[in-house]
Amino acid sequence: MAREQDSLQWSSQFFVAPPQRTPKLPGDKITLPQSALEQLLAAAPLREVSSQGSSRQYTSTFDPFNPHTFAAESRARAQELDRQRQLPHPLTFRLVNPKNDRVIYAGIREFSAEEQEVGLSAFLRRALDIEDEQFQLQPGEHATETAQSTDLNNGGRLESVRSTSTVTVHAKQLPKGTYVRLRPLEAGYDPEDWKALLERHLRDNFTTLTTGELLSVSGYRNEMFRFLVDRVEPEGDGICVVDTDLEVDIVALTEDQARETLKRRLEKASRAPGSTGGSSIGGALALGEAVTGQVIPGEHVDYELSKWDRGEMIEVELEGIDDAVVYLFASPFSSRQRNRPRVDEHVFADFSSRPSKTLRIQPTNVELDGAETLYLSVHAFAQTKAGDEIASSQTLPLRYSMRVVQSSSTVEEVEEMRDQSNSHEPGDVQCKNCHQWVPQRTLVLHENFCLRNNVLCPQCGNVFQKRSPEWENHWHCPHDSSHGNDISSKHRHDSIFHTRCSCPGCGFETDGLPSLAQHRTTVCPEKPILCQFCHLVVPQRGETDPDMYDPEVLLSGLTPHELVDGGRTTECHLCNKIIRLRDMKTHLRHHDLERLSRPAPRICLNQNCGRTLDARGVQSTVTPGIDTLGLCSICFGPLYVDTYDPEGKSLRRRIERRYLSQLMSGCGKSWCQNEYCKTGKQQRLSSDTGDGGSTSMSAAKILALVRPLIDAINFRRDAPNTAPFYLCTDQVGQQRRILAEMIAAEGAMSGGKAYDLPWCVAAVEATAGNLDKAREWLTNWAPAKDEDKRSIR
């Protein structure tokens, strides 16, 4: 196997592709042209692949004890072997910069580069000392001095870039690595911080490791861990880290660095969350409950509010103890927002310079739609007098108190109440210098003192003592209306609002943390979302997804990932049509509108029958209509005769005889529960008392009982009949009626969705008496009581 890998001999020289064409190449990945793949296949060693394997039968002339037949058998087997050229896996290369003889190993990403060009990642360009600036067209240069190439991805636009940088690429297979020793370039690295990050970084971005190169691993808090690859095993210039168990050892560069690392770890352990010198742990919050805590400058303390009234305004109050300057951030946890709030990633924030911070979130705020939890975070900036960030170990924790309340008042009403509280008495007069309201009788004394000792800032209207430190350090921002009274507040303001910062996910640059936070929580392609179609937490826009401002994305209200993922199709569980996932919600709304618009089914007027008049499963020659008196074909069948009876007199006599027969002799069916039947009465009485009892009635009582039922029937054809019947029916119809009445009573008793009896009868009939399926049928096809079209959103 080793000889086959070493026999792959191939090398070629390529121009380095501009970085604009390879922005997504990670780690040590390169791209080569398709011609390079053809050359590699031509140079790959031949490998024998047998179509029949080792179980091939020997020829008839082969004799294992005869040496003359062994050579013939070998030639026969060789003719049936299939020889193929196969590239080794993984395919690795040795890159050499001929200008400075720098060497590094790399893995292949794909064969999609332009001809005579090789695409290098940013890591490989730094390792080979290839500057990105040399690809820019210098002032005064013409396109004839540079190589011109057409970028098809940019609409065929002609780009002019330098092509003087070349790299020699050698096919070189590296052994599987078993050990690597890394040396951190800075002291204080904690294995808990970088161990999982390093493993993921190597697995996702690297195929090889080269001794003497620098690895940069991004941390969770915009940190950057840098390591030097000092030693590898097996011994050599590099190793392959794919499909192998790699042991990683971290060794300090010097003894001083080791001592400093140990010191920082001990300090970090002493300031761990929950300790006396560390930040508070945070946790769950309850409405109206005041919590106190502390936060180390540069860190965050996270809280979460899970239960609140969705119809009232949320008001979060944060106050720094002993004039501590702390900041408050909030973000809802929903399918659109998955991260906890941070200084550069939040939805709501209070960056004011006041010691007390307040967030008021209206219940109509669109960010609260679908929010499961409200995440809150308390943060303190770590800055020196010069405005530079310092280590949290050099500062003391800042104490604060926080409380979450709810109010039915709106923000406008709260501001109006505050203005009313600042009103003055009727006899007061406003001072011209400090604008303070004072009584009329003391105005002269107040103005004399005020003009001698106080000074009014003409921009913000605040009053200061003339020789106070606050007035000497008072400042106003030239870019906005912010102001403060000390140098530290000005440095904090500049670092928050007027410092150039970039998005760690997509590289977007903006001025100020609020703008960056808005970008990271709205249109950043790397913002994590919970996809409603694949139910995975993914970035909201992939490499091949449409742009965030694509018209279809804006109109659909979906993210680019959901727009593409929602293009998959599925079968509607109601109508069995093939629908796209992103159109399923609208499709189901049409079903809901159709469900609410459906007329209630007409059921059989026989109170013991559980069938509808338009049942499809009933086989009968009698069509339900006005002639059937509102009875189904099963119930009306015994009453039907083929005689001319325009006034319904014969039908009336048949119904009367049917009632008399039921009450005098009974139907004789053991399942009968008809209260107007002798048999049914006996069944009811035996189930209640345990014995049959006497159910006999005289003819006079029976006629008195039956006559009101018959008189209520409308035998004329000018209007449909609405009077009920109490006729004995078959067992299936009676059982369905009992189930329908039970389902109708369930909703009224449980307080859930309640359905009218006709819909319950139709559900039981459609599901052939299956109780669970009948409830499901009602949910899909029947409108509930007090439900209208306005409830569909």
TrEMBL record:
GO terms for cellular component: VCP-NPL4-UFD1 AAA ATPase complex. InterPro entries: AZUL, AZUL_sf, DUF7590, Ufd1-like, Ufd1-like_Nn, UFD1_N1, UFD1_N2. Residues 84-134, 176-251 form the Ubiquitin fusion degradation protein UFD1 N-terminal subdomain domain. Coiled coil: none annotated. Transmembrane segments: none annotated. Signal peptide: none annotated. It comes from the Eukaryota. Residues 657-684 form the Ubiquitin-protein ligase E3A N-terminal zinc-binding domain. GO terms for molecular function: polyubiquitin modification-dependent protein binding. Residues 1-28, 138-157 are annotated as: Disordered. Keywords: Ubl conjugation pathway. Residues 278-407 form the DUF7590 domain. One of its GO terms (biological process) is ERAD pathway. Belongs to the UFD1 family. This is Uncharacterized protein. It comes from Aspergillus thermomutatus.
